[in-house]
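Structure first, sequence second, as always.
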């Protein structure tokens, strides 16, 4: 059952993109996750793109309830889940209809034909009497493989001498489909069987469920081997990764591990307060399991309670962190201003989603950059940083804590739904090589304590309540320089406003300078999740003989110290963003560079072909 058994009979491919789709209750996320484990065990490079329905449980069989999971795996380094899908598994007509346009011409589509009945076809909007599986155009465009997955799963798992639930059996249809795909792409199914056996048999003490799922995977695998439905069997060689120990990781998982590492590096407890919100809730779930690392979690009654409780933890000398998505960040803004006035370290995690208002909760967007920069009353600067890949969320989480403690002010850490939910192979870092985060708390020297007496970095002392001799007042009213007393003096307000901004700008001395890759008179500048799409698009342009340079921003306030010099060296700057041009606005206003925007507000990442074509069109328009 291993890939080596069939190597001589397999067609070698460099990369493949597979998509699973069906009802949200069909287990498509689990199926995709298991298949991701298989390609990870095989040593392939991979990138995933889970696609969740916004409704908690839409009516079964409707387009609103379709759940999808896409993975591209390769023998080379890749950065996106792929544009066109090479193989689609559609568990029902709704999944088929909503995902057909993603499949390349000639691509394989495996459908559960048992679900293509009159009722299900009507639910997803097909005309009465029409079945897309009988459409000559569709059959001539794609390689349709009709498999009675529901029936075959029952036949494989229901035996006369066993007392099994039909409901439990039907829940194994996704594992039957997984077995087919595992055979088609020469994957070893044993790791998944071992994982299922341990989880259901040992952890959950449901050995019969483990047995049913294991048998379903095997049945699907052997069906693929014997059915002769497919034009060929395929194999993707392992990628040439840098030596090291790897694991599969999502952005939210990496963020959790980054926060736990930050706790170790700063040597202080962390308090994480959050109100559940998609797609940031997994951060709360993950951190809640790490009490043994000195992390305390609090599920607040609302967004405002979450952020102010985190501020309270910071005031008490702990690392205060709160997490949310765009709508929640809007509710937290007044309290973020309070932390800015009090000059306390605070980390605000924003896993962005498509807005405005409730918007599209399960879709991704980069639309909160300007809200992060300016969305507070008064002159209220905060540090703004952004992660560029799932694995990068680990390092930027540590950086968020480091900068918050260094500058004694809030840090808004921008992730995105497409990063938080997606997964990639991640080389586990040497934790010992990560520098400690330096924090000091004052003690009384017998002199009157001055809570706004600044050090060489422009920071006020972080006094822990209860320390004898350090009694002082705190709050949201303007403070007098040095003494911290309430002060309404005009000149003092101007001074304090400047000092709060200056200490953030001083961070340019410690954050990395911007690196430029490539030699060209055109720079493609990105931030956040666009990094993968940009790298893949630039590689595609190079194949066309078009060269552009690239640079990517992780630090947005303050910008890297050399950003102005970098921009001045290029004739043109192109900024792709999953918004209407928010970074472009900042670059234009700060550096007077007439940057050209390529913008996508569809709730998804750029397709590589799409982005490469648009960059090329910009260059052709300039040259003409």
């Amino acid at each position: 059952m291993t890939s080596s058994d069939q190597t001589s009979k397999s067609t070698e491919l460099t990369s493949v993109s597979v998509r699973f789709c069906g009802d949200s209750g069909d287990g498509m996320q689990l199926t995709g996750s298991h298949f991701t484990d298989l390609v990870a065990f095989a040593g392939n490079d991979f990138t995933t793109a889970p696609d969740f329905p916004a409704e908690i449980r839409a009516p079964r069989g409707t387009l609103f309830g379709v759940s999808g999971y896409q993975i591209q795996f390769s023998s080379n380094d890749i950065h996106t889940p792929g544009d066109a899908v090479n193989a689609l598994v559609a568990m029902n007509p709704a999944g088929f209809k909503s995902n057909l346009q993603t499949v390349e011409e000639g691509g394989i589509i495996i459908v559960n034909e048992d679900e293509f009945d009159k009722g299900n076809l009507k639910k997803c909007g097909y005309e009465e009497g029409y079945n897309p599986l009988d459409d000559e155009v569709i059959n001539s465009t794609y390689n349709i493989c009709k498999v009675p997955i529901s029936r075959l799963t029952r036949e494989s798992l229901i035996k006369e001498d066993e007392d099994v639930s039909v409901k439990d059996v039907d829940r194994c249809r996704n594992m039957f489909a997984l077995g087919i795909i595992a055979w088609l792409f020469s994957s070893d199914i044993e790791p998944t069987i071992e994982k299922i056996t341990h989880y259901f048999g040992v952890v959950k003490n449901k050995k019969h469920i483990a047995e049913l799922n294991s048998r379903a995977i095997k049945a699907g695998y052997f069906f693929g081997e014997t059915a002769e439905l497919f034009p060929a069997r395929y194999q993707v060689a392992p990628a040439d990764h840098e030596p090291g120990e790897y694991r599969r990781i999502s952005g939210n998982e990496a963020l959790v591990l980054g926060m736990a590492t930050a706790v170790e590096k700063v040597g202080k407890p962390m308090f994480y307060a959050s109100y559940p919100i998609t797609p940031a809730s997994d951060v709360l779930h993950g951190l809640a399991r790490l009490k043994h690392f000195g992390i305390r979690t609090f599920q607040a009654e609302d967004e405002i309670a979450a952020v102010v409780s985190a501020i309270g933890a910071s005031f008490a000398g702990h690392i205060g962190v709160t997490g949310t998505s765009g709508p929640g960040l809007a509710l937290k803004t007044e309290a973020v201003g309070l932390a800015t006035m009090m000059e306390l370290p605070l980390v605000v995690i924003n896993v962005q989603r498509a807005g405005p208002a409730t918007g599209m909760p399960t879709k991704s967007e980069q639309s909160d950059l300007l809200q992060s920069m300016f969305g507070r009353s008064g002159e209220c600067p905060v540090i703004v940083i952004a992660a560029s890949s799932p694995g990068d969320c680990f390092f930027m989480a540590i950086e968020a804590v480091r900068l918050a403690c260094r500058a004694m002010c809030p840090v808004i850490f921008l992730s995105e739904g497409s990063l938080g939910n997606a997964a990639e192979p991640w080389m586990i870092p040497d934790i010992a090589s990560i520098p400690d985060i330096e924090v000091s708390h004052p003690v009384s020297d017998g002199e009157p304590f001055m809570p706004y007496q600044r050090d060489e970095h422009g920071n006020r002392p972080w006094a822990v309540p209860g320390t004898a001799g350090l009694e002082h007042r705190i709050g949201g009213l303007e403070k007098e320089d040095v003494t911290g007393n309430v002060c309404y003096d005009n000149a003092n307000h101007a001074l304090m406003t400047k000092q709060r901004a200056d200490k953030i700008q001083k961070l340019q001395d410690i954050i990395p300078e911007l690196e430029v890759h490539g030699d060209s008179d055109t720079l493609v500048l990105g931030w956040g999740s666009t990094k993968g799409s940009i790298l893949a698009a630039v590689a595609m342009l190079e194949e066309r003989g078009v060269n552009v340079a690239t640079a990517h921003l992780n630090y947005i306030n303050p910008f890297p110290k050399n950003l102005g010099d970098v921009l001045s060296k290029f004739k043109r700057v192109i900024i792709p963003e999953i918004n209407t041009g928010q970074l472009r606005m900042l670059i234009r206003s700060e550096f007077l560079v007439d940057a050209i925007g390529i913008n996508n507000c569809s709730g998804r990442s750029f397709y590589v072909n799409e982005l490469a074509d648009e960059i090329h069109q910009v260059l052709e328009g300039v040259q003409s």
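Margin note: Residues 207-227 form the longest helix (21 residues).
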